Amino acid sequence: MPPDDGHGRRDYDVVVVGGGVVGCAIAWRLSFTTARVALVEAAHDVGEGASKGNTGIATSGADCAPGTLEADLVTRSSPRWEELCASLDTPWRRIGTLAVAMSAQEERGLQHLREQAVRNGCRSELLSGSEARALEPLVSPRALAAVHIPDDGIVDSLRLVIGYAELAARNGVDVLTGAPVTGFDRDGGRIAGVRTARGRLAARFVVNAAGIEAGRISALAGGDEFEMWPRQGQYLLLDRELGGRFAKIVGGVPTELTRGIYCVPTTNGSLLLGPTAVDSSYPGEKAVDSDTLDAVFAAAQRLVPAVRRDQAIKLFAANRPASDPVYRVGPDSRVGNLVHAAGIRSTGVSSSPATADLVHSLLADAGAPVEAEDASAQTALAPLPRLLGHPDPERLLHLDPRYGQVVCACEQVTAAEIAAACAMRVPPRSLDALRKRTRAAGGRCQGTVCLAGVSFLLSLHMGMQPWEIPVGEPEATLGVAS
Ligand SMILES: Cc1cc2nc3c(=O)[nH]c(=O)nc-3n(C[C@H](O)[C@H](O)[C@H](O)COP(=O)(O)OP(=O)(O)OC[C@H]3O[C@@H](n4cnc5c(N)ncnc54)[C@H](O)[C@@H]3O)c2cc1C
Q: For residue 171, how many other CB atoms are within 10 A of its CB?
């Protein structure tokens, strides 16, 4: 961290506001340069906003509107996933999507999807219902036809955000969490400093990647006026019993308004059903409701009759950062050293590497010192061995005997993995943050059985009593008063 300037301010070439997938990807890209960079996040951990509750599809771009910035950034990102995820120790598989038509009207929609795919340069093939079932036997026998998009993939989007932030931190980016931006110091038409709850940072350039708060951050900086609002999505998460049998992402036929409900196998073998897409006016609203979840389940069951509601282990909601237009990525028209990476509503995971490249070049165009690449920068994280699915568990015991101490039985998370997560440059400061890094308490029991052990181990690393460990933000503890 740079020393302060004698007035309590530290000095950065670029301050990135917001530690979601977009801000973390930008910090990661900038970390390969010699620029001094800070990533400032309001929450106690990175990836606590929209990036925490998405479907984890890395789309190849077949369903993006052709000619848009979104389509451009998604299609540029798509070929990079194998290499990117290997370098960020992030689970990823290119399994492909089946967009399934169950009615004659939906069948006509498939034609539109095919045309879009062609215009976006994405591979796709039109299949009959029985050809679709040959690829994915779980698809309903009533399916009439489908479009197969083979280059879509599934990614552990929580680990992706952590991976971006961790590699950025190892390359010298200061990741400041629990540091909401409260204002800016101005010098003429430019930002001179960023005020946060953890002090002031001198900033030559600022990137606004504050998700749903991006309009407010722009207003605080004296920048362009734009409105952001939440577009909510609700989900059911089903456990591995069925998820492990899926070979493909199975979805309906996208319409102008929504991509529709999917059955998405996750990289850890569970199954997501969802999401809905409903505009709302309450950014903090993450409640689910039974009518919506009934509709999600019915739509998923129409595509895959084998889904069962009693396999649900979690119900949750998340909010997309919506704006008009979407993908407001570019320089501010009023503040010379402010770049927006905002309004990245529905495909922010899928476009993140190319969005980071674009912001890097926008900063360079604006005169930020981000062009010199740092030859000493680390290009990849060393993969952390994990017990779950490991071909030779005996060998792990020789690496570290704590691999023998399974703390979370559902996800087979060991004390060794928890210790490694706690030793990260961007360490977990809550049970939720530990779950994002290790999957501890994220499986079938959702912590019912393992929370005591998990919180005990985390308490050793955080120097707190187990009952003082926050579940998420610092004020939300396990609830036992001292
Ligand atoms: C239901 C749903 C399903 C989705 N499915 C997919 C999918 O399958 N594939 C895909 O590619 N994308 C998907 N998305 C979209 C994707 O999740 C978003 O595009 C992406 O997460 C947006 O990232 P972000 O960094 O812009 O926003 P966020 O993740 O919200 O990050 C913004 C960050 O800014 C911080 N912040 C806010 N105010 C301040 C402040 N004052 N100071 C400091 N920090 C601040 C917030 O705390 C937050 O961490 C989905 C989204 C949702 C909600």
A: 20
CA of 463 to the centre of ligand 1 (A): 31
Ligand 1 atom nearest to CA at 345: 19
Whole-structure pTM value:
0.97
Please tell me the distance from the alpha carbon of residue 251 to that of residue 299, in angstroms, as a whole number: 9
Q: Which CATH architecture has domain 97-150+232-319?
A: 2-Layer Sandwich (3.30)
The boundaries of every CATH 3.30.9.10 domain in the chain are 97-150+232-319
Residue 269, classed as helix, strand or coil, is coil
- 43 CA to centre of ligand 1 in angstroms: 12
The SS3 of residue 478 is coil
For domain 1-92+154-228+323-381, give the fold.
FAD/NAD(P)-binding domain (3.50.50)
Cis (ω within 30 of 0) for the bond into 325? yes
**Which residues are 199's β-sheet partners?**
196
Could you report the per-residue pLDDT of 127-173, keeping only the tens digit for each? 999 999 999 999 999 999 999 999 999 999 999 999 999 999 999 99
The per-residue pLDDT for range 348-364, each reduced to its tens digit, is 999 999 999 999 999 99
